[in-house]
From TrEMBL:
Name of a matching Pfam family: DUF846
GO cellular component term, pick one: Golgi membrane
Sorted UniProt keywords: Membrane, Transmembrane, Transmembrane helix
Compartments where found: Membrane
Major subcellular site: membrane
Taxonomic lineage of the native organism: Eukaryota, Metazoa, Chordata, Craniata, Vertebrata
The protein's name: Golgi apparatus membrane protein TVP23 homolog
Length: 194
């Protein structure tokens, strides 16, 4: 742990009794959250791809894409992560000026079952992982095609969506030490299988 950043794992809201009694189902319990989880992400990608066909104004395209990416960052970080998979993260600064990263995960119910639906979890993680990879491809494309003005927009896409991906991986896996030990054990197992 860094001396300036303390990492703390805490549990997300105590699970209500009526919520914990629900069985794990594949249906989507939060259709509006699922829609907006993908809407802002996919819209930003579509606007980026079709921008030069729709208008000649780079500024209008850039502002539209940045607004969509910002709305996506806020919605995923504050709403859809909590509703769809029971995870949330944020940074808080205490009275001494020290920064604390807080990663929350909803407690597992008494029966050992998860509270989030399997379909919502798949939608959440698929959107969370796929879209930053697409923005990385756009970044290489803009870099190698010498479209420097678009590089700034693409970097914003990589940074905003990559930050959410990193935050939720930390929520899911735990502290940095757990993340490195998990990666090391996975690579060790793969090496031993070979």
């Amino acid at each position: 742990q860094d001396s300036s950043d303390d990492i703390e794992d805490v549990s997300l809201f105590d699970a209500d009794d009526d919520v914990s009694r629900r069985s794990k189902k594949s249906k989507i319990r939060h259709p509006v959250a699922s829609f907006f989880h993908l809407f802002f992400r996919v819209s930003a990608i579509i606007v980026y791809l079709l921008c030069e066909l729709l208008t000649s104004s780079f500024i209008a395209c850039m502002v539209t894409i940045i607004l969509l990416l910002s709305c996506d960052f806020w919605a995923v970080k504050n709403v859809t992560g909590r509703l769809m998979v029971g995870l949330r993260w944020w940074n808080q600064v205490d009275d001494d000026g020290r920064s604390h990263w807080v990663f929350e995960a909803r407690k597992v119910s008494a029966q050992g079952g998860k509270i989030s639906s399997e379909a919502e979890s798949r939608i959440f993680w698929l959107g969370l992982i796929t879209c930053p990879m697409i923005w990385v491809i756009f970044a290489f494309s803009a870099l190698f095609s010498f479209k420097v003005k678009w590089l700034a927009v693409v970097v914003m896409g990589v940074v905003l969506q990559g930050a959410n991906l990193y935050g939720y991986i930390r929520c899911k896996v735990g502290s940095r030490k757990n993340l490195t030990s998990m990666a090391t054990s996975y690579l060790g197992k793969q090496f031993l299988r070979q």
